[in-house]
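DATA SHEET
Item: assembly model
Revision: 1
Owner: S.N.
Input lines:
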Amino acid sequence: MRRLAALSVSLLLVVGAAACGSSSGTAESSTATTAVAQKGYRPEPKRKVGAMSLPDYAAGQQGTPFTFKAQPDGLLLVYFGYLSCPDICPLTMGDTAAGLEALGDEASRVQVAFATIDIERDQGPEIVEYMTHFFSPEQIHALRAEDSYSLNGVTYEFGAQWSIEPHQPGEFYGVAHSGTTYAVDDKGNVVWAWPFGTTGDELAASIRTLLAQTYPTT
Amino acid sequence: MTLTTRTRTIAATCAAVLALGGLAACGSSSSSSSSGTTKPSGKVTVTDAWARESATATGDGALYFTIENGTSTDDELTAVSVPTSVAAEAQMHETVSTDTTMSGGSTGTTAMKSGASAGSTTHATIGRVHNGADDGDTDTTMAGDAMMSMKEVSSVAVPAGQTVTFAPGGYHVMLMGLVSPLKTGQTFEVTLTFAKAGTVTATATVRAS
């Protein structure tokens, strides 16, 4: 009940800010335990993703199964994108990298997973190359499902949407996807979802709050 | 009654133009028809052209810039090109947010949990938003996971006295088939073609963001 009320308040604040045409300054950094208006929302009902895994090419050249759970007392950020996405994917990864930088030492508790939704064009090693452009190697997971069936099983549980334009082999095709970044805790619960357009500073403030709320004893 | 609105629009336009470099286009903007004898007080300029540094060895790029129409004539950007030594093709795109269907409607909108691949030549798959069915609650957060997609546009209006910005998350030029990865500091020429102003060139610089 209390959580619902807090969620409503933060949603209202975010909507209010969006209506003013401003995307900055909604998340003010303050003491981590007080209620802070954060950009994004906490998915309700709970989304549990910790039972699923996808091949991680950052962990092994053949793709080592990676389970959607953060390191103990940490957060795993998950983004579903594609490598030939010229605009919003690199923008989001750049903002995310800036957010981790702004976190300072606490960034060691955060890892970032990029899962491609374009398994036809994107190969595992390329996703590793892409991610190391933005992050240091120990921060990343480069995920590529073996088929669209297993990919869809994962995106469904996260609440992410994607679609591939029908096309002939070799033909250029468009891709649509949720621009959302998800935060997963060490038990595999999705504890937050940030919309496309969240800045690095907003992300850093949000992550501080989430770490404090999710792991109050650390 | 429309007078107020129009006056306000003109005032706002003036303010915007003044703020953006003190161009003297406002005085003549009440007349939208430009005759040959009325000399436009400004011109169409392109500034801050930049492309994002490539993250991988292969792939596509994105190019951004700011267009200022300092003339008293509405114009239209109809094409953007870059040298073939940079990219095979440049297309104007707009990033748009769509709730459940892809722009253009070319994808089936039937959502299904099991990803379905059609025949071996045509692929159509669509993910599905979480509907909270596991405990019967209505999930009110669907809008947060709206899909983003890119829509090719054939032209972009650049009204008289206004500024149009190509920026991340909105309009961008997609550089398809990059000849080599874009590296920070690299520069290349960009040619913009306008319906009335003709071609305007600018130098784009590659940077991280």
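QC remark: Helices of chain B lie at 2-19.
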